[in-house]
Design a protein that fits this description.
Helix content: 25-40%
Number of strands: 13
CATH superfamily of the largest domain: Macroglobulin (MG2) domain
CATH class of the largest domain: Mainly Beta
CATH architecture of the largest domain: Sandwich
Number of helices: 6
Strand content: 35-45%
Largest sheet: 6 strands, mixed
CATH topology of the largest domain: Immunoglobulin-like
Length: 250
């Protein structure tokens, strides 16, 4: 569905009060599949929907899970910085966004935020099995480093007060997908809250897929690593031979 079509549907919802009868919350996205190729520079998706009455909205988007290693640098002799500690985490969301109609602390309880992962502090990734067990302040510091690095890469962000209502029932918000967002299946969960409690939830599918040459390379690297490695070596050898031949001629 194009963004223009989404706006058209949003307008129709406003004209049909009985639509969605029996449902407290109805949502949709302007696009359910984002195709990534060599010219992809990122995009914005429109999430829109309707409630059965006044309330607040929180949208939580999580991308495909991945393993992440965080390294802590330490100063040696006051001259150089080197990596002295590495901690691995499993099932870290590759993309994470929270959008809300108002500040989370004013519309949700701590328990609701923890249960529905409303905020980076409540993400459920864990230490890798190969990592030495750590806890307390040290674990918190490394978890915060994961989130900080993702935010710096514009893959994590919070957008409080970004969900806009049109009247009391219709709402919309924009989701920014950067060019380097991981491909795969995403979860887009929208929550309707009243009196700081979740009263309805709606899940909307979203996929980001590679196409063309990018997909061929990705599939070869993950499904046929030996062939991919051999091809990479051959390409490097050929490139070196070609460069040497050009310099000989010049």
């Amino acid at each position: 569905m194009s963004r223009l079509a989404a706006l058209f549907v949003l307008s129709l919802l406003a004209l049909v009060p009985g639509l969605g009868h029996g449902q407290a919350l109805v949502t949709d996205l302007s696009e359910h599949v984002v195709t990534v190729n060599s010219s992809f520079t990122g995009t914005e998706l429109l999430l829109f929907g309707m409630t059965d009455g006044p309330g607040d909205i929180v949208v939580v988007v999580q991308g495909p899970r991945e393993d992440v290693v965080v390294r802590r640098k330490e100063n040696v002799g006051g001259l150089i910085w080197i990596n002295r500690r590495a901690v691995g985490f499993e099932r870290v969301p590759g993309y994470y966004v929270v959008a809300s109609s108002r500040q989370l602390t004013s519309i949700t309880t701590l328990a609701a935020r923890a249960q529905h992962r409303m905020g980076a502090d409540y993400l459920d990734f864990s230490l890798a099995a190969s990592t030495r067990r750590i806890a307390g302040a040290e674990l918190t510091a490394f978890r915060q480093a994961v989130v900080r690095n993702k935010r710096a890469a514009e893959l994590y962000y919070e957008a409080e007060e970004s969900v806009q209502f049109v009247g009391e029932r219709l709402f919309r918000t924009k989701l920014t997908i950067p060019a380097h967002a991981p491909d795969g299946n995403y979860t887009v969960n929208t929550y309707l809250l009243r009196n700081q409690q979740v009263v309805a939830q709606q899940s909307t599918p979203l996929s980001i897929v590679k196409s063309g040459f990018e997909q061929t390379v990705f599939s070869l690297a993950h499904e046929q690593p030996a062939i991919y490695g051999l091809a990479a070596v051959l390409i490097s050898v050929f490139a070196g031979w070609a460069a040497a031949a050009i310099f000989r001629k010049s």
